[in-house]
Fold:
Amino acid sequence: MILKNNIVLIGFMGSGKTSVGIRLSYSLKRPLVDTDKWIEQKQKMTVADIFERDGESAFRRLETECLKALIKDADRQIISAGGGLPVKEENRKLLKQLGKVFYLKVSPETIYERLKTDTTRPLLQVADPLRQIKALLEEREGIYESCADVTLEVSESTFDEIIEQMKGLV
Ligand code: S3P
Structure:
């Protein structure tokens, strides 16, 4: 059940949610909220430091807290959700209430190429990040699809193409 008229972006790390969100925000003149940034501002810590100090489950609780705050406050905004946020069922319900959910679907190889030198994603600081990406994507693919109102395969798309496509759907 949709309660609010936001545009919600979901997808794996490196799928382009933040970059698409920034461009969409500019193009539609709507504010952008990034759940990772919301949490970092509230906690005055980076996501990586929260994972290290308090663990992943503490971070996941903060994600739910963030969604509950957005349900109260956010309307006609663009919301970019952290890649693992939809994994929790409670969060999927909250995401759906927030607005129309777009899943930016990207291949594991594209994600790997984009993130192979990134040090900010704790879940990818492992010996074989491509293998980890594939394993997590396998777990999450169906979850993303079931949460989304619209799935956009964007591995081969330019940002302009994605924005035009999305503007036709909102
Ligand atoms: C995570 C994705 C990250 C961030 C955290 C965990 C995940 O967000 O929330 O590192 O579990 O996929 P982005 O998808 O914005 O990178």
User: Anything to note?
Assistant: Helices lie at 17-28, 35-43, 47-54, 56-73, 89-98, 108-115, 129-147, 159-167. The CA atoms of residues 53 and 97 lie 31 Å apart. Residues 13, 17, 36, 47, 82-84, 121-123 surround shikimate-3-phosphate (CB under 6 Å). The beta strands are 6-10, 32-34, 78-80, 99-105, 150-153.
